[in-house]
Amino acid sequence: MMNLSRSVALISLFLLPLLSFSFSVDNPTDRRVLVLLDDLSLKSSHSIFFSTLKSRGFDLDFKLAEDSKLALQRYGQYLYDGLIIFAPSTERFGGSLDSKSIADFVDSGRDLILSADTSASDLIRGIALECGVDFDEDSSAMVIDHSSFSVSDVDGDHTLIAADDLVKSHAILGKTKIEAPVLFRGVAHSLNPTNNLVLKVLSASPSAYSANPSSKLSSPPQLTGSAISLVSVMQARNNARVVISGSLQLFSDKLFRSGVQKAGSPNKYEKSGNEQFATELSKWVFHERGHLKAGSLVHHRVGETDEPAIYRIKDDLEFSVEILEWSGKSWEPYVADDVQVQFYMMSPYVLKTLSTDKKGLFHTSFKVPDVYGVFQFKVEYEKLGYTTLSLSKQIPVRPYRHNEYERFIPTAYPYYGACFTTMAGFFVFSFVYLYHK
Amino acid sequence: MMARGLARFLVSLLLVAICNAASVSQPISDSHRSAALDVFVPLDGSYKSLEEAYEALRSLEILGIDKKSDLSSGTCENVVKVLGSPSSALKDVFYALSVNGILKCKSGDDVPKDVVSKLQAGAKDAKLLLDFYYSIRGLVLVKEQFSGTDLTLGDAEAIFRSVKALSQSDGRWRYSSNNAESSTFAAGLAFETLAGVISLAPSEIDQSLIQTVKTGILKLFDSLRKYDDGTFYFDGSEGPISTTASVIRGLTSFAASESTGLNLPGDKIVGLAKFFLGVGIPGDAKDFFNQIDALASLEDNRFSVPLILSLPSTVISLTKKEPLKVKVSTVLGSKAPALGVKLAQALNSKGSSVINNQELKFDADSATYFLDSFPKNFDVGKYTFVFEILLDESANEKAYITEAQTKVPIAATGAISIENAEIAVLDSDVGSVESQKKLDLTKDGGVSLSANHLQKLRLSFQLTTPLGLVFKPHQAFLKLKHESQVEHIFLVKTSGKKAELVLDFLGLVEKLYYLSGKYEIQLTIGDASMENSLLSNIGHIELDLPERPEKAPLPPLQPTDPYSRYGPKAEISHIFRIPEKLPAKQLSLIFLGLIVLPFIAFLIGLTRLGVNIKSFPSSVGAATSALLFHGGIGAVLLLYVLFWLKLDLFTTLKALSLLGVFLLFVGHRTLSNLAAASNKLKSA
């Protein structure tokens, strides 16, 4: 018995550092990432991408996609916080892994980077479809663009796309603008229009189309123009994040290091935008940016500091909430001018934009409406690329009490005057009546 | 296992194909040099182990990057420590000597005696292949670096035999005699070891022994694997790059050590070189080292030095009239001997030959071969050029080897002329032209058309190549985009000389979802060999289509704009109930004044009437009770005032009941006093 408890203590001591690395709300960055490859040489050919991840503190576990010992969880506990699937040709994963367990992995709030390529397998297409991304059904199709391809001396197919139609979101792609076009060679996908969680990060130009470059077209291509998405992201309702790319080469050392000149443009860049794009995107997907946390909703009457149990109609109140953003290392104050609060009972009675003190505190003040009932303070914050904040706090509002109405109404002064003059008259008259002689 | 191997093979194939899209190998260039500086970055000024240090230093040395001075101090300290310590493992000693060979930390006559004896003992007692390898190669390194020592192996032949004993019949080697598993990687190590034994042997090794090793090498070449594009590699559990590099290192040193020479198949040697060049730039330090080291071995060996034909550009622009350039160099990019390059054939996409047997001119300054003029019938399109290298074998001391033929896909691009572009609306039944507009597709036009479902839209244009032939582009799309963002794509097909598209709206109403209104017309023409690919907004057409029947399909859902989905909502502020309107305060005060007037009139009336209070009792008792009575009444009235101002009903009633009782008592006394006084008056 002694031995057992001692060994348990020992094991937990051993597990402690492991546990402290795991995914948590206080430290939302993924730490342990499983990388599935269909060839270990990808480890070397995509080493810059992997080494930037490693240098940011990620613990990468490289496995072959067909490894028979693959498992995402053991004894009901997930072994990893993130998953990178760079295995476009894999038809079946080894071990216990399949598309359902990957969907469960995302459903548990964990993150995924999925990269397909030309001739992506049905398995990879299936996982993408779960996320609202539809790859071109034609397995030999590639994105071709005869107007915005990358000028190159060795590519005569115009399948190396220089794409610069990026989503405008600081949260997803960072504050520094990606100047150089992003090189892309791979398969096109479209987004399911009914899924509003998924969005295009890198779109093709209007002249792009998806077809097999080496055969003549007999029917119009399925995907054309800027409806083609090259790289998409999905943020689930539980804030799990997914990146889906149609090109595995986009992450390769070769394209990271390659120079780029977009056809018809005089600007020549020494280095393509791929490295910056992939790095910033990986920061987003692993919650190093755009992950918000809110403190509790604080409210009180103007001039007071304590939160009342109930408000009276027409009270003036002050409302504040603290919102912080995870920077990868610590929680930094979040600055924005579009956070709003609602004073809500069945429908919003008051909707106000909060002003910020630039230190993370958002505040406003307003008058409680003259409707009584059970209200809620609601902060529902949705912004492109950021995690969704949904906070609410219930507070009742009562009408005036009997003694809270106006006490001496000037309009009633004549009545008061009548009463008191009568009383004074009575007092005088009582003397006159009793003692007159 | 089989399936996995196959899949891995396929993917590596894909990778090679991707890295090397044109299947033309480029020799090692400056991009490798700049990448090397990133790959071999020492941590805090020194490498983790001497092995890593050697790999880094060796790769940088081969690439001609001088970083020795930055690294020597820390690394040399390690080297001296390992060589000085008697307890160092053979492996560490070997790598210390390897590093020393590059950095020259210790040299000259200062022979580390302990190390030599240790290595010699190691070679004698070794049972494992790796022990043989480290000790023999270590001794070779000592021999190279330190002069004046007797390092001869007394029993070289015995050692040779015991190493040879580990070989397998298929040309591979085992790591130890008790381990049956054989490996190609080990074969490479064994060749290097045997080469070391030969060079250290005091007398010649028995030729028959060497001959058996040579047959083993040829057997090993049977296990060579091949990709479709003619590259060869050895596969093994250490990965293709490491395994192939190990074999090449072994072969090079083996060939260098013995005199009769190895006769290896030349195409396979070129294939191995192309394999390493096809890898691209590995990001892993180990792969990088293996690639560079193996290529360096191939560059300088005694069997055959591969030459690589490369093209700086495989896209020829016919408008720029650039010559086609070809370079021939060794794998590491150094100059090739004098030779000739011949364009044996140029096949177009249909497979017919356009150019035959044309020798390329040589430009000595840039060391390039070039084809400056193309035949008259050379048009835009995709070609396969077949090059041959003509080597003058007698003129070279080294045995150079090249591919028999190098096939290179070439894309010839040019400006395509677009003519006679016009758009027209036709009446369906008679085909008469309703309205016809000429188009200039190079500019966005403002064409405005209108049609109903009984009419047709016709778009036509002519594309011709610089040679005046009809050009069929890969991409010729007409896009109709409705106001509601619903898009329809139509292919413009080329028939005869003209590319033409006729849209019969009667047959298309269903496809257009019966959506009437304004459609934007966009034409995209593009091809890989077309330099002036274009995207032209022609204008718009106003379509008048019949009403949508009940059962017709609805237009598909269009994706929403992500920017509009988020963002702040309009503010809402509560509208409060307006308080009831009250008269002005002045008005109330005026009325208050009016109300007070009767009281004043009452007081004035009393004085006018001449009222008095003469019958106020004069006796002390009666006067007291009268005063108390009136005081009581006053107190009740005051209580009412207080009730109005602040008291509540309960306090008031309590006080009132007390005052009432008091009043009753003093009132009775006062009244009875008054009554008694009036009775007295009456009776008097």
TrEMBL record, chain A:
Residue spans crossing the bilayer: 413-435
GO annotations of cellular component type: oligosaccharyltransferase complex
Pfam family, one: OST48_MD
Signal peptide: 1-24
Superkingdom, natural source: Eukaryota
Record-linked InterPro entries: DDOST_48_kDa_subunit, OST48_MD, OST48_N
Membrane disposition: Single-pass type I membrane protein
Pathway where it operates: Protein modification; protein glycosylation
Alphabetical keyword list: Endoplasmic reticulum, Membrane, Signal, Transmembrane, Transmembrane helix
Keyword Membrane set for record: yes
Record-annotated OST48 N-terminal domain positions: 32-285
Function (record text): Subunit of the oligosaccharyl transferase (OST) complex that catalyzes the initial transfer of a defined glycan (Glc(3)Man(9)GlcNAc(2) in eukaryotes) from the lipid carrier dolichol-pyrophosphate to an asparagine residue within an Asn-X-Ser/Thr consensus motif in nascent polypeptide chains, the first step in protein N-glycosylation. N-glycosylation occurs cotranslationally and the complex associates with the Sec61 complex at the channel-forming translocon complex that mediates protein translocation across the endoplasmic reticulum (ER).
Subunit structure: Component of the oligosaccharyltransferase (OST) complex.
Designated name of the protein: Dolichyl-diphosphooligosaccharide--protein glycosyltransferase 48 kDa subunit
Organism, as annotated: Brassica napus (Rape)
